[in-house]
Amino acid sequence: MTAQVRSLRPEAEKHFIDALRRRYEEQGFAFTSEPDPKQLPLFFGSYVPDALAQKSGRNIVIEFKEQPTSSTQRALSEIRRLFDGHADWQFRVFYTGTDPQEAETVAPASPDLIRKSADEVKALAAQGNLRAAFVVGWALLEAALRARRDGLESLSRKPGTVVQTLAMEGFIEPPAERRLRELIPLRNRIVHGDLTVEPTTAEIEFVLSTIENVLDVDLS
Fold first, then answer.
1. pTM of the predicted model, to two decimals?
2. Confidence of residue 95 (pLDDT cuts 50, 70, 90)
3. Is the domain of 74 the same as that of 151?
């Protein structure tokens, strides 16, 4: 199986590797860039990741891409299947559309706090504040991703990257991914001040139900 998906410029990849190395080492991981193929497990086959972050009981395989596209998504999905049945190995994809040095670092929230905030979103919607409820709902979706990634997803992400990562990690199914992507333009228009559009109650409820599914899904 051929599963190489690299497409980054060398300087961009080095920039991201240096930033991630610091982050993972602060979490107690040993970080290896361009690992020796001879040192990789046999189930990797021909696949060689961009980097590894490892500590007792946890092995994180890291791949870098500039932007999520349909072709790279298919290739990355193929790679992700390599780790089915290997609970101590996790596959992580980082997109360089957001510079790790320029993006905001966001503290992770607990699932309980996210659920409490979701109740506040429901109250906003019930009061007719649909735009505010929709935007905060999208913020909570990103918070849910961060919570499920054990605090390692600490940088702010664009909505498309959040959806892509949730799908790649198995937190949402393809139908949910497609519907979320359809809602991104509406979210962006509202955030950027377009007062001619407004989400429906059903769209807000869908975002909130997706958040609950992300927090509850069992990946074991």
1. 0.59
2. low
3. no
